[in-house]
Amino acid sequence: MNTSQKRIVTYWLYLGLILVGLMIIIGGITRLTHSGLSMVEWKLIGGTIPPLNENQWEETFNKYQQFPEYKKINIGMSLTQFKAIFFWEYLHRLIGRLIGLIFIIPFLIFWTKNWLNNTQKKQLIILLGLGALQGFLGWFMVESGLVDIPAVSHYRLATHLLTAFTLMCYIYWLILSFNNIKRKPNQKINRLSKWLISALVIQIIYGAFVAGLKAGYLLPIEGGIFKIIFGYKVRSASDFSLLNNSFDIQAFHRLFAWVVFAISIIIYNKSKKTNLKTTGMLVFGLVLTQISLGIVTLLLRVQIHIATTHQFIAILLLLSLIHLTYLSSEKSQSNA
């Protein structure tokens, strides 16, 4: 791959990265606006064009009325209200289709033009596989809310979100790898950054649990700010559950943030006298910002703009950690 080819492939990967990030943000808004179950049909091609006239809107709305969300939660909803929630789910699916086209078509062109070496071909096939898996998990998640109980499984939501973050991080790793970004090996920082990624995976899973179970509205506001941020009321063992009890899940997500914070402090201290100082400082700053936004999100009872910003910072934090992990690693493999 020559310099010009490498630049084109890099722009392509960056476009995919931006679109996946946008997909995550819109997915969050879809969740916050309770729009995820508004499209009750899953058509790979046919669902690309939205209703274009009042008759089509009425037909689409009538289909929605046959499902549990309308019957048990939104009974009496007007067509205008339905259009508002339909918009976000439609946009979410439309961008998903766009991502598929943007990844598949250029990939085939690069392959036929022989721009890619064997390693890059394998890496990009994995990328396409992750994208396909993400699409399937989106359908699998929505399907869980279309029968009996009008709410998607928080387990499926967590899997869907985690796969999206994995896809995004993998794209960024490929960008760094394809361009042979110079590394600055540091075994201690590399190990710490991997620990922090592991901790963030746990936080992402529990963040999805909080969203899926609407546990963000359960913050106890009595007892002062210290208790709100750090406190946890000991509960009886009979109903304690970190998998299904909304209160316990929200409390765990809130308290585990301080584990993330502690690791980020260690990374900052270890990196400040190295050539990884800037990236280490960025990671620490983003963790601090993310925790602050998390607290504000709960205190303001999950206002959309704050919660969406909280999710956006999570994207930046993960990408900065991927950058730090790549830079501090010792393995250097040419993809030129």
Secondary-structure blueprint:
Layout lengths: L2 H30 L21 H11 L3 H5 L6 H34 L5 H26 L10 H25 L8 H26 L11 H7 L15 H26 L5 H23 L4 H25 L8
Helix pairs in contact: 1-4, 1-6, 1-11, 4-5, 5-6, 6-7, 6-11, 7-9, 7-11, 9-10, 10-11
Output mean pLDDT. 89
Uncertain segments of ≥5 residues (pLDDT<50)?
A: none
Count of discrete alpha- or pi-helical segments spanning 4 or more residues: 11
Summing up helix and strand content along with how strands pair, one would put the structural category as: mainly alpha
**Topology, number of strands:** 0
Distance between the termini: 6 Å
Give structural notes:
The chain has 336 residues and is mostly helical. Helix content is 71%, strand content 0%.
Question: What's a quick, concise take on this entry?
Answer:
The protein is mainly α and 336 residues long. The chain has helices at residues 3-32, 54-64, 68-72, 79-112, 118-143, 154-178, 187-212, 224-230, 246-271, 277-299, 304-328.
